[in-house]
Specification:
Length: 258
């Protein structure tokens, strides 16, 4: 099959963007106030209503962008550390659409439109990158949440990648799971059939959040598969370096087999 001519693809991108903009506006202007109310009134106990509302809103945002999400495997309940490959802001939205988890996120995200709000509502733990004291505080907070039975999430590559290969997993991020004796569940995020759209979803060189946001709004509809993989138990695989190696290997294998 021949590729779509650039002029035709540009026209299709414009049309898709124009079609989705009203849907995005409705999702933000109508959906956000509803979510805010549900979160505000659901302040006791496990906050099931508020968490379900965030999952619904995240899933709806992905739908507006033409992303059709399929879950493979089951997220562990309770105090679990989820770790995933990292391409773009879409990763956080995708994971939140499937399960409630508090992310480690760079502090700048707090100021991003829409995503910053969702990150705060989603109980993110903000990290000042390059600040050793901030990382220590984040590890302490993560371990406390895990002991209390709350899920946390991290991107062990330490930042977004270009989608061409999986980066090294930094072992230190797994310290909280080791100290809390909590399971680690690797999650492979696969954009497009057989993960062929990883480089499309990823930030382009020098691309800003808004640039990526607008570009993805014009992309064709495509599947997104979220693989919740076999958990790693500290008691069976002692040491954070071993856990980091296993988590990376399982994510890499899942993406290769997709």
């Amino acid at each position: 099959m021949s590729a779509t001519p650039p002029a035709v693809e540009s026209l299709l991108r414009i049309l898709r963007t124009l079609l989705r903009l009203p849907l995005l506006a409705c999702h933000v202007l109508v959906g956000l106030p509803i979510i805010l109310v549900l979160i505000a009134i659901d302040t006791i106990g496990e906050k099931k209503v508020g968490h379900a509302a965030i999952r619904w809103w995240a899933g709806g945002l992905l739908w507006v962008f033409g992303m059709r999400v399929r879950q493979v495997g089951t997220p562990l309940p309770g105090g679990t550390m989820f770790v995933a490959n990292h391409l773009s802001w879409v990763d956080i939205i995708t994971l939140h659409s499937q399960h409630m988890m508090g992310f480690i996120a760079k502090a700048e995200i707090r100021d991003w439109p829409l995503i910053g709000w969702l990150a705060k509502a989603g109980e993110s733990i903000f990290l000042q990158r390059g600040n050793a004291h901030s990382l220590t505080d984040v590890m302490i907070e993560m371990a406390a949440r895990l002991r209390d039975g709350h899920a946390v999430a991290a991107f062990p590559e330490g930042g977004t990648r270009d989608g061409r290969e999986l980066g090294a997993f930094h072992a230190r991020i797994f310290t909280a799971a080791v100290e809390a004796d909590a399971p680690v569940q690797p999650v492979a995020l696969c954009f497009g059939a057989h993960c062929e759209a990883q480089t499309i979803v990823a930030f382009a060189p020098g691309e800003s959040f808004m640039g990526n946001f607008v570009r993805l709004l014009g992309e064709p509809a495509r599947p997104v598969t979220v693989y919740f993989l076999e958990p790693i138990l500290h008691a069976e695989h002692e040491g954070r370096r071993r856990i980091a190696t296993l988590a990376r290997a399982r994510i890499e294998q899942a993406m290769a087999a997709a």
